[in-house]
Amino acid sequence: MNKEEQYKKQLCYFGDEFSHTNKYKLNSWQKSYIERINKYLLGYSHKGKVLIDIATGSGYVAVEMAKLGLNVIATDLTPEVIENLKRYKRQLGLENLTLKKCFAEKIPLPDNSVDYVVANAILEHIPDEMQAVKEWKRILKLGGKMFITVPLKYQYILPFLWLPNYIHDKRIGHLRRYDLKTLKYKFKLPVVKVFYSGHLVKILGIILGMILRTDKYDEYFEKKDKKYQNNIYGGNNISVVLKNEK
């Protein structure tokens, strides 16, 4: 699949997904990421600093960071995503939230212009991943930090989940998977923190919720999943916090 075909497929898939979003909602798994971003990325004095949420998707990172007082830039290529964020910005009165429709590997910002980069579930979709890595490092200030989340390589996933993950990869447009060694090699930045998510207990919680058609148990299973965040084996995603120390 060439670059043009990949982006056409992505726009179709995510355009359909986010066209059904009626109102802003923060799910249990999203709360977990916000807690980790607060703890491992931001530190104590973050108000007024600039954070970019690349390929913002549902927009939860952008919205929650703007609520904390950061100057947030949310980017995405999908028109439906941008329209949703415009609505959230208006409804929540987030004047410190700026929206940009652009490619993740071609961001219209000056060099060294942001304090924090968040790029969750995007690098695996990009045909020219190294151009994206180069671009994210270009806009990050010296001393700034990145929060990156990507799918974990199959060798660490429980074997009976390989096929479901393979089907998911093809359906959603994942081009590759990663581990800590791969991310260190590609970004060449010091790692501040690494954790893993999507362990078996969380998968079981998702299945239970689908069977019972409820999300009332999501928070319970999310807490259980957090207990395994330092365990690579059995996880499905890897998140790293990197610091720009040239």
Explain what you see.
- By secondary structure, the chain is of the alpha/beta class.
- It is built from nine helices and seven strands, in the order H-H-E-H-E-H-E-E-H-E-H-H-E-H-H-E.
- It has helices at 3-18, 28-42, 60-67, 79-92, 129-139, 162-172, 180-187, 200-212, 218-226, and strands at residues 50-53, 71-76, 97-101, 114-120, 140-151, 191-197, 237-243.
- The protein has a seven-stranded mixed sheet with strand order 3-2-1-4-5-7-6, with helices on both faces.
Task: Provide a brief overview of the structure.
The protein is α/β, with parallel strands linked by helices and 246 residues long. The chain has 9 helices and 7 strands; from the N terminus they run H-H-E-H-E-H-E-E-H-E-H-H-E-H-H-E. The chain has a 7-stranded mixed β-sheet with strand order 3-2-1-4-5-7-6, with helices on both faces.
**Subunit organisation of the chains:** single chain
**Mean pLDDT across all amino acids:** 95
Alpha plus pi helix count: 9
Indicate the low-confidence ranges by residue numbers.
Answer: none
Q: Tell me the strand order in the biggest sheet.
A: 3-2-1-4-5-7-6
Q: Give the helix proportion (percent range).
A: 40-55%
Shape: globular
Q: Compute the gyration radius: what is it?
A: 17 Å
Q: What fraction strand?
A: 15-25%
What structural category do the secondary elements indicate?
alpha/beta
Record field, number of beta strands: 7
Main sheet overview: 7 strands, mixed
User: N-to-C terminal Cα separation, in Å?
Assistant: 36 Å
Note the run of SSEs as H and E.
Answer: HHEHEHEEHEHHEHHE
